[in-house]
Specification:
This protein is mostly beta strands and about 170 residues long. It has a single domain, classed as Pnp Oxidase, Chain A. It is about 15% helix and about 40% strand. The chain has a seven-stranded antiparallel beta sheet with strand order 3-2-6-9-10-5-4. Strands 1-11-12 form a three-stranded antiparallel beta sheet, with no helix packed on it. The protein has a two-stranded antiparallel sheet with strand order 7-8. The longest helix has 9 residues. The chain is globular, with a radius of gyration of 15 Å. The N and C termini lie far apart (about 35 Å). The mean pLDDT is about 90.
Length: about 170
């Protein structure tokens, strides 16, 4: 077991890069909010990933928030490389133009956070891209109060193909 597996389950996201005309998408668990003002989030990407090459080239990316309904696409996006395969042809998700960055958003996701690279931090075998959120589009689950009963986000149980989702039960502290 790898040491980092002890912090799982973790939320699973899709990271788009490239352009709307030549999109790339990968699956990522290592995404975290870092600041409210300015709005920053961190995304850890392996040095050998095609996504890293595209983020370095364009300085932008989108963090898309999928639900369990598109798990098959999430799995494929994380198991094949965009350097070798045109993922847009293999996936049933719909890439749509983002409002402020070149990287596309994903129609089927509950939110798309458009980011410009704010800073890069070397972190061993990954690079932490700190992205400033410049635009957000959101789906029906995000109203005044999030609709947690119908918004079934993806939790990756650990390395491999085991996932779960949130229950529809609501708890308050």
């Amino acid at each position: 077991m790898r040491e980092v597996e002890y912090i799982y389950p973790m939320r699973t996201f899709l990271i788009t890069s490239g352009t709307f005309e030549k999109p790339n998408v990968m699956t990522a668990d290592w995404v975290t909010p870092l600041s409210i003002n300015p709005p920053l989030l961190g995304v850890a990407i392996g040095h050998r990933r095609f996504t890293k090459k595209l983020i370095d080239e364009y300085g932008e990316f989108v963090v898309s928030v999928p639900t369990i309904e598109i798990l098959r696409d999430v799995w494929i996006a994380g198991t094949v490389s965009g350097a070798d395969v045109n993922k847009a042809e293999k996936l049933s998700i719909t890439f749509v133009p983002s409002k402020k960055v070149k990287a596309p958003s994903i129609r089927e996701c509950q939110a798309n956070l458009e980011c410009r690279v704010f800073k890069e931090v070397e972190t061993g075998d990954h690079i932490l891209y700190i992205g400033e959120i410049v635009e957000v589009t959101k789906g029906d689950a995000f109203g005044e109060i999030p609709d947690v009963k119908n918004y079934r986000f993806i939790l990756h149980v650990g390395f491999g193909n085991t996932f779960t989702t949130n229950s529809s039960e609501i708890f308050k502290a």
